[in-house]
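Lecture 7 notes: from sequence to structure.

We start with a single chain of 159 residues. Read the sequence below before looking at the structure.
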Amino acid sequence: MANDPAESAHSKILFVASTGGHLTQLLALRDWWSTQERAWVSFDHPHAHAALANEQVTWAYSPTTRNIPNAVRNAFLARRVLREQRPDIVVSTGAGVAVPFFWTARAMGIRTLYIEVIDRISTRTMTGRLVYPTVDAFAVQWPEQQALYPDSRVIGATL
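Now the structure, written as tokens:
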């Protein structure tokens, strides 16, 4: 894969994550992102409102799983947000909302970093399978996950 996009000293980051565990795993990386310029995409849900109270947030369309109209809406949202924000990198732990953002970012030449979730050790997630071909860097949290994603880098547990 290309140079590790997470290694740049200062980047404008767009975080994309479903609420719940996906968002919690990105929030756990606060020491890394707290000094960076950033924006978020998540779902309009009490968890996200509380966790991202002082952050710049765009609300995505939910649910995403097997919901074609929302997938299309999120594809248009990804195009708009990426054009407006012009991030240096898009970072996500999933789930489905990440897919249109990663594919659109690739088409626009924006770097991406996907972090596979902590709780899927022996099988690949649907989102991981769908974004793997598009990413600049793919991180896993357990050594066992590396067999599922050969070009990945083990970063250790985020939680």
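The chain has six helices and seven strands. Keep this in mind for problem set 3.
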